[in-house]
Amino acid sequence: MEFSGTYTALVTPFLSSGDVDYEGLRNNIRFQIAEGITGIVPLGTTGETPTLSEYEQEEIIKIAVGEGKGKVKVMVGTGSNSTHHTIENTKRAKKLGADMALIVTPYYNKPTQEGIFQHFKAVTEAVDIPVVVYNIQGRTGINIETATLKRIASLKNIIGVKEASGNINQMGDVIAEIQDKSQGKFSVLSGDDGITVPMMALGGRGVVSVVSNLLPGKVVRMVNAALSGNVAEAKKLHYEMLPLFKGAFIETNPIPVKAAMDMCGMPAGTCRLPLCAMQPENREKLKKILGQMGVLP
């Protein structure tokens, strides 16, 4: 499976009652498809997955597959800090029709590099589905070292990595030492909107984006320009969106992007505890950014 382009890490919209806004989710996915997105990623970090019940998670996968199948790629977040639970989550995603699974480094446990490798080995042996590794040390407390990722990349069905380590030198190493030697079998996508163009200049193949919840078409154009070698256009779009790339992380993701979507009249709602409403002063900063960008209705 070719793994490149623009994937949106979908928010999970909530109603004022605190329940999942399933109809809002449908509308958001339809908007993504209309704007030319490559794929959608339900049940990731941006989707507040740890706060969702198993029933809610299953309904979200069903909606994502029902709306997206055959139109966009559906990559479901299935990772956890339990290998057993990750396997069960990944089996469920496959059964419900997901195209691929996004699996984060086990968090909290802080496994060794060998433990990380054994985790992915166990999952890929148990479930026959394309797997994207998700490396985000800031969330998990542990970085996947390049030597370890090289071992993981040799496993069956591993097709790429969502690189959110924040270390551009490491990203370059992964591109040069793994992606470029894989004969098209392994791709590196950015997990950070603001580093997408710099990383793609090194050879990366796209992004799993937060900001594309709000501006999918513009992020798609930026990534496509970079993929086609139009550096000037990619750079131009990067700088146009840079204030929002920064604003989207002024507080813990997905608090800012959900606030921005709410300001723009899109289904989002507030976050579930322990994430809370955006601080008033930061909300004003975000509103100013959206106003200056001409995004507000």
Describe this structure in words.
- The protein is an alpha/beta fold and 297 residues long.
- The protein has one domain (5-227): TIM Barrel.
- It contains twelve helices and eight strands.
Measured between the Cα atoms of the first and last residue, the distance is: 39 Å
Q: Shape, please?
A: globular
CATH second-level architecture: Alpha-Beta Barrel
Strand order of the largest sheet: 7-6-5-4-3-2-1-8
User: In CATH's first tier, which class applies?
Assistant: Alpha Beta
Assign the structural class, choosing from mainly alpha, mainly beta, alpha/beta, alpha+beta, or little secondary structure: alpha/beta
Average of pLDDT: 97
At the fourth level of CATH, the homologous superfamily is Aldolase class I
Major sheet details: 8 strands, parallel
CATH-defined fold name: TIM Barrel
Fraction in beta strands: 5-15%
State the domain count: 1
Radius of gyration from CA coordinates = 18 Å
SSE order, as H and E? EHEHEHEHEHHEHEHEHHHH
Give the helix/strand layout:
Blueprint (H helix, E strand, L loop, with lengths): L4 E5 L12 H13 L4 E3 L12 H15 L4 E5 L5 H13 L4 E5 L8 H14 L4 E5 L1 H4 L5 H8 L4 E6 L4 H10 L9 E4 L5 H6 L4 E4 L6 H12 L3 H17 L7 H9 L16 H14 L4
Parallel strand pairs: 1-2, 1-8, 2-3, 3-4, 4-5, 5-6, 6-7
Descriptive tags:
8-stranded parallel beta sheet, 12 helices, 297 residues, alpha/beta, 8 strands, single chain, globular
How do you describe this structure in short?
With 297 residues, the protein is an alpha/beta fold. The chain has one domain: Aldolase class I (TIM Barrel), CATH 3.20.20.70.
